[in-house]
Amino acid sequence: MFCAFRSHLFDWYVQSLIDVYGERIRPYVLDCAIMLNGMLKEYLFFALFEQKSFPFQRLAPFLIERLDVIVDSLQHDMPLLSHDAQAEKKKHVPLRLLRR
């Protein structure tokens, strides 16, 4: 169940990034989704486990500004992952189905 939720969340990241940045991000969308997820996860981990005051209201704008810089810089680089990798992932049978 957790894997399905994570997959849906990742798909949402991918589609949201394409919606916000347009077709120019498509070659880099998996890389950007992974970076966004990692940044968000680490900030949330810090906020939850350090038990210190955290400016949650500033988190989304802060991350979007970082992502803007990342997206702008990627046009000069090759993606590590292709969007086809996401499509290929969906063709594979989940491990939980193989165990039945």
Task: Describe the protein in words.
The chain has 100 residues and is mainly α. It has 5 helices and no strands. It has helices spanning 2-21, 29-49, 56-74, 83-91, 95-98. The relative contact order is 0.14.
- Write down the overall mean pLDDT: 83
Instruction: Work out the strand percent.
Output: under 5%
- Give the radius of gyration: 16 Å
Measured as a percent range, the helix fraction is: over 70%
Q: What count of helical segments does DSSP give?
A: 5
Structural class: mainly alpha
**H/E order of the elements?**
HHHHH
- Give the CA-based shape: globular
Major pleated sheet:
none
Number of strands: 0
Distance between the termini: 16 Å
Stretches with pLDDT under 50, minimum 5 residues:
91-100
List strands and helices in order, with pairings:
Elements: H1 2-21, H2 29-49, H3 56-74, H4 83-91, H5 95-98
